[in-house]
Amino acid sequence: MKKIQISPSILAADFSILGQEIKKLEQGGADMIHVDVMDGHFVPNLTIGPPVIKSLRKYTNLPFDVHLMISPVHKYIKDYAEAGADIITIHPEATKNILDSINHIKNLKKKVGISLNPNTEIKTVLNYLEQIDLILVMTVYPGFGGQKFMPEIVKKIKDINKIKKEKNLNFDIEVDGGINFSNSKIVIEAGANILVSGTTVFKENNGNLKKNIETLKLT
Fold first, then answer.
1. What phi and psi, each to the nearest 5 degrees, are found at residue 83?
2. Does residue 72 have a cis bond before it (omega within 30 degrees)?
3. DSSP code of 211?
4. What is the pLDDT of residues 124-156, one digit of tens each?
5. Which of 1, 12, 45, 183 is positioned for an S-S bond with 202, CB 3.0–4.6 A?
6. 212 near 200, Cβ under 8 Å?
7. Which CATH number does the domain housing residue 141 bear?
8. Stretch 99-118: mean pLDDT, rounded?
9. Contact yes or no for 88/74 (Cβ under 8 A)
10. Looking at residue 145, what is its pLDDT?
11. How many domains would you assign to the chain?
């Protein structure tokens, strides 16, 4: 099994000192930085755009794991690639042609992720699994931080992992949404190897980032 990695979501960070927060995450043992990009259209919230990501890039050498919850996504991919994204994850519902968007990300020399909302079936992306680096399984409906984990999505993680093994594929399985100390083990056992967590990383144990990141990996 692949090494378990933690990708803390800066959605739960102090936005007035984001650069310092990212530095602390690196010092605390984070494997990458998860950046939630929302447009107020595809999802009901607004967050940050390419200029902010570009300004944050100098604070760490960790990969920027950028989750684009925007529609139409295709025309903005280049902006996020140039701003400093290392992994660009898109939703199949947000593009007219999934394969075109996958190839666009690849041509920009970035890793490709596809995200599945709780109501998005695996069959939607079945034909693209050989072309991507990562599947992001949402265990909440995207748009807001701090939501409760949906345990019924664990089966989807297991099903994706089964397909991955049967086809001998090598993509990462990332899980995002209400991940905490009580459910991290469940999703890891189901096949996830990258956990996105915001509230738990930043708020538990009086904000002890190192302890929280380590606990998520080991629970």
1. -75, -20
2. yes
3. H
4. 999 999 999 999 999 999 876 667 899 999 999
5. 12
6. yes
7. 3.20.20.70
8. 98
9. no
10. 66
11. 1
State the pTM of this model.
Answer: 0.96
Rounded Cα distance between 131 and 97, Å, is 14
Q: Minimum mean pLDDT among 28-37, 139-148, 178-187: which range?
A: 139-148
Q: Which two structure tokens, joined as six digits, stand for 38?
A: 């929302």
In 3D space, the residue among 69, 20, 24 whose CA is nearest the CA of residue 45 turns out to be: 69
Q: What is the largest distance, in Å, between two alpha-carbon atoms of the chain?
A: 46
List all residues 6 or more positions away from 156 whose beta carbon is below 8 Å from its beta carbon: 116, 122, 137
pLDDT at 2 over 90: no
Q: Which H helix or E strand runs over 100?
A: helix 98-107
**In the predicted model, what is the mean pLDDT of residues 175-188?**
96
Q: What is the pLDDT of residue 1?
A: 62
Quote the crossing angle between the two packed helices 18-27 and 209-218, to the nearest 10°.
Answer: 50
pLDDT at 176: 96
Q: Considering the candidates 36, 39, 133, 172, report the single residue annotated as catalytic.
A: 36
Catalytic option among 39, 65, 133, 176: 176
- CA 50 to CA 177: how far, in whole Å? 23
Q: What is the DSSP string of 12-35?
A: GS-GGGHHHHHHHHHHTT-SSEEE
Q: Is 36 an annotated catalytic residue?
A: yes
